Each structure stands twice: as C-alpha cells, then as structure tokens.
C-alpha cells in the first residue's frame, strides 16, 4: 500500500502538469507514449504472457497530431465520434477475448479499447481550456474526467477494506465488493459535482459526469480484470510499483473517457 501511494504521489504532478497545459501538445505526446506502452501490455495479456510486441497505431498518431495542429470544434466532434466507435469496437473484442476466443482480428480490434479513450482525452484537453493558471497552464474540463475517477478508485479501496463484505463479481475480481463499489460511485458523484461548480459548468452537469465516470469507470476496471483472469495473469505489467502496469492504472479511465468527453464538449458547443 505504501509503495502504491508513493508511486501515485510521484506521478500526480507530472500528469496534472501535462493535462493542465494550455497547449494540447504535451497531452498528445503523453497519450501516444501511453498508447505504445499500453499496447505492449495488451498484447502481453492477449497472448497469455508470451509476447509484448506493440505495433504503433497510425490512427492514434494521426488523431493526436490533427487535434494538436487543428483543435477546432468540428475536428474535435469528428474525433469524439471516431473515438467512441473505436472504444465500442474494442470493448466488444475484449469481451470475446475474455471468453477465451483468441482470433487474430480480435487482437487488432481490441486496440480500440485503448486508442479510442486516449484520443477522446486529447480532444477533451484541447477543447476544454478555461481560466488561466499562468502563461503555460489553465483549468481544464479534463478534470471532470480524471478527478471523479481518481476519487472513485481511492474510495473503493478505503470503503472496501473497511466495510466490504458482499462480493461484487467474485468470478472476475474476488476483492471487489458492493460496499466498495457504492463508496466509489458516491465519491465520484460528489467530487464531480463540486468540480463542476468550481469550473463554472454547474453542479448538475458535474453530477452527470460523476455518474458516467463512476459507473463506466468501474465497468472498465472489471473488463480488464476479466481479461487478466482469462489470461491467467495477475497484472498487465510491472512498470508502476504498487499498481502493476499502465493498463492497471488507467483501466477505469478508458471506458469512461469518450462518453464524459462527448457530454462535456457537445454541451459546451451547444451552449
């Protein structure tokens, strides 16, 4: 637990610095790096630990570059639609893979589970810049995604350890409980509503983001757990001490990212 906390504290200022940059380029570069490392881990899981070769995704690199060069509302809307379709395709493929189907085309389709959400996060960061925090940084709507997810993950651990008794999905993840899941959802909603008021989008829209992040975040966590269990592996990797791999750290973000981003950016453009 101590190692897990220390790793999180070391990464927090770096990740926030990138996400709150006024330029979309730092987030685009980070997303591309995470995509490469995440694909290595996804290949590792799908091959049951036999390979970790990652092929860079031309869609990911092209999408992040387009956003960084031309972050117009039309471009961002197009990217969000594309990212959402990639995510849905990736989830369908992952569900098949978790059931033991190992057809090669599914492996390529499963990459959308990683690439789509990362593209959506780049789009959200590029389109959600708000009040300046200095010459290089600004408050950003991307906080409406990451803060509820982080709060929910933390609450799930604390509440689950203190009061967890009823297993949530024992065949997929024995340590998860209904009490922990409830605590996670409450924390996500409360933090998102507070963040929405702070960022000026209103507590109501913030609450909606919290519900999306809280529910989809936990489903994303269970989805990766199902894949790991079917592969016979405990973690997706060992890059992050106390957390496992990159996918173990961002699995809650992945399923929630495209839909929270769409809600925020489409609401903002409509307003």
How would you describe this structure to a colleague?
There is one protein chain. The protein has 271 residues and is mainly alpha-helical. It is built from 10 helices and 4 strands. It has helices spanning 2-19, 25-46, 58-69, 73-98, 104-110, 112-127, 143-163, 178-199, 203-231, 246-270, and strands at residues 129-132, 138-140, 167-169, 173-177. The strands form 2 sheets. The protein has a two-stranded antiparallel ribbon with strand order 1-2. Strands 3-4 form a two-stranded antiparallel sheet. The longest helix has 29 residues, at 203-231.
Strand-residue proportion: 5-15%
- Count of strand segments: 4
Report low-confidence residues grouped into runs of 5 or more: none
Radius of gyration: 18 Å
Order of helices and strands: HHHHHHEEHEEHHH
How many domain units? 1
Q: Work out the helicity level.
A: over 70%
Rounded average pLDDT:
87
N- to C-terminal distance: 44 Å
- SS-based structural class? mainly alpha
Query: Judging from the principal axes of the Cα atoms, what is the shape?
Result: globular
Spatial arrangement of strands, main beta sheet: 1-2
Largest sheet: 2 strands, antiparallel
Alpha plus pi helix count: 10
């Amino acid at each position: 637990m101590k190692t897990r906390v220390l790793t999180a504290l070391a990464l927090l200022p770096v990740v926030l610095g990138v996400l709150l940059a006024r330029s979309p380029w730092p987030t685009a570069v980070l997303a591309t790096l995470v995509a490469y490392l995440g694909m290595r881990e996804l290949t590792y899981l799908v091959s049951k630990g036999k390979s970790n070769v990652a092929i860079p995704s031309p869609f990911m690199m092209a999408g992040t570059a387009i956003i960084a060069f031309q972050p117009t509302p039309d471009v961002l809307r197009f990217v969000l639609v594309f990212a959402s379709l990639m995510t849905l395709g990736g989830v369908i493929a992952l569900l098949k893979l978790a059931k033991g189907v190992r057809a090669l085309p599914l492996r390529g389709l499963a990459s959308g589970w990683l690439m789509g959400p990362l593209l959506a996060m780049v789009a959200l960061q590029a389109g959600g810049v708000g009040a300046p925090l200095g010459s290089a940084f600004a408050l950003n709507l991307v906080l409406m995604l990451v803060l509820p997810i982080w709060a929910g993950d933390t609450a799930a651990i604390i509440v689950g350890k203190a009061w967890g008794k009823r297993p949530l999905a024992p065949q997929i993840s024995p340590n998860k409980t209904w009490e922990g899941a409830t605590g996670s959802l409450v924390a996500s909603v409360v933090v998102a509503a507070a963040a929405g008021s702070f960022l000026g989008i209103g507590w109501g829209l913030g609450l909606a983001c919290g519900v999306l992040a809280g529910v989809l975040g936990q489903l994303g966590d269970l989805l990766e757990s199902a894949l790991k269990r079917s592969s016979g592996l405990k973690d997706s990797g060992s890059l992050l001490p106390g957390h496992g791999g990159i996918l173990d750290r961002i699995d809650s973000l992945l399923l929630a990212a495209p839909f929270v981003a769409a809600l925020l950016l489409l609401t903002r453009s409509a307003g």
